[in-house]
Q: What sequence folds into this?
């Protein structure tokens, strides 16, 4: 069959789009892996499974089955990865991307990633949920931690992950019952603000616990990276990428 010019144009556009997608993925996959984002997503999947199992004991069977079906579709691992990497490619300029890769390939960068990914593991989360001890740190170290708590996207991402897991049952009930349980948008926003307000005062001590094995010099060096132009761009791009992954 002979293809018409319009068909050839469409095929060419589709081929170009496929090549562009492959190029975007190639450009961001290394950073996605090096920065620990891929591991954090795996840990989120573990948390999602645990949340689904908890709801199994609390919800009617039809609501629970709807919850599992919809949450598995919304948080499909490959789709989350694709959304995150696409956002990274859009949000991070070439120079910042290159410097981010260099940082995460460095000895300190690898250590930071090991610490941060350990902190989001199921075992560590369970330990921290039982209560984080009050850390005894110097005034200088506490000042560094407070600056990190402002510069890192840890608070906003913690809020987004918590909201995503907490809203599973509500969304399933909304969809299953035709909106009878529809939660007003301002109520959801208020929950987000309440959660942020609860987490924010404890964040410096949480970071003191998470980064407890770093020396003062290493912690200061990490802060300097985070506060650099490339570090700020990278943190912002990662925050946007994680939000896109969680909110299709």
A:
């Amino acid at each position: 069959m002979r293809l018409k010019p319009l068909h050839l144009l469409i095929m060419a556009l589709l081929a170009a789009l496929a090549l562009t997608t492959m190029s975007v993925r190639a450009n961001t996959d290394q950073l996605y892996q090096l920065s620990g984002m891929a591991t954090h997503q795996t840990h989120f999947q573990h948390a999602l499974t645990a949340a689904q199992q908890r709801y199994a004991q609390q919800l009617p069977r039809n609501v629970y089955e709807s919850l599992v079906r919809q949450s598995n579709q919304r948080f499909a691992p490959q789709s989350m990865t694709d959304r995150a990497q696409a956002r990274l490619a859009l949000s991070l300029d070439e120079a910042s991307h290159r410097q981010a890769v260099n940082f995460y390939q460095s000895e300190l960068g690898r250590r930071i990633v090991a610490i941060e990914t350990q902190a989001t593991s199921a075992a560590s989360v369970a330990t921290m949920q039982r209560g984080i001890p009050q850390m005894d740190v110097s005034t200088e170290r506490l000042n560094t931690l407070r600056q990190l708590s402002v510069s890192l996207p840890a608070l906003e991402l913690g809020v987004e992950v918590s909201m995503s897991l907490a809203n599973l049952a509500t969304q399933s009930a909304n969809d299953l019952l035709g909106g009878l349980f529809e939660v007003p948008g301002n109520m959801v926003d208020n929950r987000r603000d309440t959660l942020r307000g609860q987490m924010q005062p404890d964040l410096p001590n949480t970071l003191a616990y998470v980064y407890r094995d770093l020396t003062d010099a290493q912690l200061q060096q990490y802060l300097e990276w985070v506060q650099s132009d490339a570090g700020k761009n990278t943190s912002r791009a990662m925050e946007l990428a994680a939000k896109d992954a969680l909110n299709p």
About this structure: The mean pLDDT is 83. The first helix runs from residue 5 to 34.
